[in-house]
Amino acid sequence: MVAWHAVGAIGAVTGKMIAMNDDLVGFVRSKLEADEHDVVRITSLAPPGTDVILDSTIPMIDMVNAVIDLYAQVAHLDTPVREAGRDFEAGRAAGLGAAVRLLAQTYHDSPEYREGWRPQA
Prior knowledge:
Blueprint: H1 2-45, H2 57-74, H3 87-104
C-alpha cells in the first residue's frame, strides 16, 4: 500500500512539473511574439530616413524561439523522476529547461510570470 501511494505521489508531482513546463513554454513564446510584433511596429512607425537599430532583435528572438522549440520536444522529461535508460534525453531536457528558465527571467515583471519558473541554484 505504501509503495502504491509513493508511486501515485511521484506521478502527481511529475504531472504538475510537465504542466508547469508546458506553461513556461507557452509563456515565453507569447512574450517573444509580442516582442517581435513591437519591433515590427516600431520599425514601421519610424520616419523615413531614420535609422532604427533593431537589426539584431529579430534574429535574437528567432534564436530564443529555436531554444524553446528544442525544449518543447523534451520538456516532458524535465522532471525530478528519471526513467531508466533515458539519461541522455533527461539530461538534455534539464539543460534546455535551465536555459529556458533563464530566458524567461527577462519577463519576470510580467503578472503571468510564476516564481516556480525561476532557475534553481
